[in-house]
Amino acid sequence: MRRRVWLGAALLVGLVGASAASALEIAIVSPEPGQPVFGVVRAEVEIYPWDAPVERVELFVDGQFVEMRRQAPWSFEVDVGQENRSHEFYFAVFDPGGESGSASLRTPRIRTDEEVEVELQQLYVTVETGDGSSPSLGAEDFVVEDNGERQDLVTFERGDIPFTAVLAVDASVSMKGRRLRIALDGARAFAAAMKPLDEAKLLVFSDRSLHETPFTSFAGVLGVGLAGIEAAGGTALNDFLFTSMIRLEQRQGRRVVVLLSDGIDVHSVLSMKNVRQTAGVSQAVLYWIRLLERGEDEEARHVSFWRDSDEHALERRLLRETVEESGGRVVTISSIEEVGGAFARVLRELREQYVLGYYASDAPGDGRWHRVSVDVRGGGHRVRVRRGYFDLPNAPGQQR
Amino acid sequence: VEALLGLAVSFERYAEYQAAREHLERLLEARPGDEEGRLRLAVNLARLGEKGKSARQLEELAGAAEASWVRALAAEERARPLLRAEKWEEAGAWLEQALGRSPGADKLYLQAALVEVARGEPWRAHETLDRLASRRASEPSVEPRFRYASWPVERLSAPRARVEESLAASREALAQALAELPREQPR
What we know:
The structure holds two protein chains of two kinds. Chain A is 21% helix and 34% strand. By secondary structure, chain A is α+β, with helices and mostly antiparallel strands. Chain A has a six-stranded mixed sheet, sandwiched between helices. Chain A has a five-stranded antiparallel sheet with strand order 1-8-7-4-5. Chain A is globular. In chain B, helix 7 (106-118) packs antiparallel against helix 8. Chain A binds chain B through residues 111-113, 207-209, 212, 233-234, 236, 239, 242-243, 246-247, 249-250, 266-267, 269-271, 273-274, 277-278, 281-282, 303-306, 308-309, 367, 392-393, 395, and chain B through 12-15, 76, 80, 83-84, 106-107, 110-111, 113-114, 117-118, 120-123, 125-126, 129, 133, 136, 143, 145-146, 148-149.
């Protein structure tokens, strides 16, 4: 059933606005008010009286001209993308006398907590045999426990499950010149090898954000605007790992952060303890491509303006633990030339992950930490999976 | 005063917080209104465990400092121990107030977003970072934390130039005085 939105109603609900300088009446048929929109959307108006002469109708979405029609039906198809955001549809109608009328409608975004079925816990599991290969397993091979209680799997998948990734590249002054170029090439190669339903965002940071692309499945988009970026400043790793996780917060499905950095945070305002708390809430899997120059001691002591030596050591340890708790891992490389291979290894691992879904038998939404464990029957396997999650309550008004 | 600042910064760099404090206190005796000096003293007091005194000074600076970077950094540093102690409500109230006074301070947005995550409202954190991203696009600036950690070139360059000028002038006078000395016969 089609639903018409009339000018009078529009003024009442506040979602639809219209003006009618001419005698034309304009009714937005699609999209419907109050409905979030994604992907290809039909945008349609009806104009009254039916026999009124109409010279053309123009559609603008989010302030950008989309298309013009010179005859009915006044229907358009427009791709608004997959990002969860509000969109403004604006129709301009002109009669042959040059007079015009317009109607507009703003669609809402979906609140994150409404997007996912919170009771369904999804675990992204990497399994390796002794020689590092990924074995072929079935649902019956996995034993999942949530707070010590055995769980029944309700979903089981492997392989090309789409993911959304933030590729966070440290561009502090130590990455100056060729090193940054190679690092960015590695990130772009990662994006180029993604499948059509995968998406990524490139976030280049130092002590501040130097460049951030939108989420996209087109590797080319990640390359736009990189030419002018120069490595500069210090590193605020914690701040931008946090930012990466928050950026993923409104994305559905499998979420991944790939961080390329030497891991020495100097200028963050957030502590890794704070970031670790956020990682516990986020469902993102974290990978840290750790650039450790040849001969550099993994446990080298550092002092900076904002932290003494012990604090630096603690931050680095917590970063490693946070990554491992998320089900991801630290990929250590000893030369910038290895960056491309490291990104490729992370992508291969994502392709080979198992995705196990279950309804936790005891999840009242009380904010408690749930400890998760996954074993593979038969032994001899290395299993990596996030170590737990916070059972957060739903937002007011949401059904559990 | 500038030399004392330079020494304090050097001590801070090597985590010699007590020595930094002593130089900053001398600096403030000479110039009590020096905002950077007051900020650095407050930061170092916190590092030395004098948290109450530090918090009071940071609150004053966050509310009244003329330099926007000092105001922003004081607000961030005041919020940091609250976040570390997971005092989310107190931190949230402070950050809301601080963002009203320093809407250009990037790191305050991050701290506010952290509070929102801790309150179980990650979608609000996302919106807060959206606000930050739209602001950043129009106002690129030097990060106050980076500025704090950098050698205070601006402040040191003018006095250094004065010292060099005066040395140059002294050299001339010295050369003249030497030239006027009676020459001794070599033995």
